[in-house]
């Protein structure tokens, strides 16, 4: 595991200095690598950088085709599909006032569509790419964890029964000690800031 430190940034601070000095987009996440001095924002860019810089043994990635590009494909699906749709659902279901039922419904339907895509893709395989857990799989963990709470809040807990392959895959990732540690830190940070866990 790569040693790291993290800083909790309040949502109210992401549009102000010093944060926008690192990330002019004023969004989370951002990374500053003290080993190289590189500062990056946008999830996909951060993940690809970490893979290139620190996964030189290919423990979480592949260097040959087609697996290398299949990993990229799934990462692009995460950053263009799961992240934005689950994020919009979280916003409209939890924070936007007044409530906008049509927006919540739209993004709940998109969340379910994403579950379906992943479930179908995992029907006959343990991982999204090849025979090991890769960064492609792990890129989905945080929003998938968040979605468990959203599904309950929306009164749709039974929805997950339709996606057994997705559920097995997520459970498999969440059983990994490094993922458990990450999720614990995320949950603790959210709870400390009064956010749903």
Report on this model:
There is one protein chain. With 197 residues, the chain is mainly α. The protein contains eight helices and two strands, in the order H-E-E-H-H-H-H-H-H-H. It has helices at 19-22, 43-54, 67-95, 101-121, 135-138, 141-153, 164-174, 177-192; strands at 30-32, 39-41. The protein has a two-stranded antiparallel ribbon. Strand 1 and strand 2 (39-41) form a beta hairpin. Helix 3 (67-95) runs parallel beside helix 6 (141-153) and helix 4 packs across helix 7 (164-174). The chain is globular. It starts with 18 loop residues before the first helix and ends in a 5-residue tail after the last helix.
Instruction: Report the end-to-end length measured between terminal Cα atoms.
Output: 25 Å
The best one-word shape is globular
In DSSP terms (H or I, runs of 4 or more residues), the helix count works out at 8
Succession of helices and strands:
HEEHHHHHHH
Oligomer: single chain
What's the main sheet like?
A: 2 strands, antiparallel
What is the number of beta strands? 2
Estimate the helix proportion, in percent. 55-70%
Strand content: under 5%
What is the gyration radius calculated from CA atoms?
17 Å
Low-pLDDT segments? none
Strand adjacency order, main sheet: 1-2
User: Roughly what is the average pLDDT, rounded to an integer?
Assistant: 95
> Helix/strand/pairing class, anyone?
mainly alpha
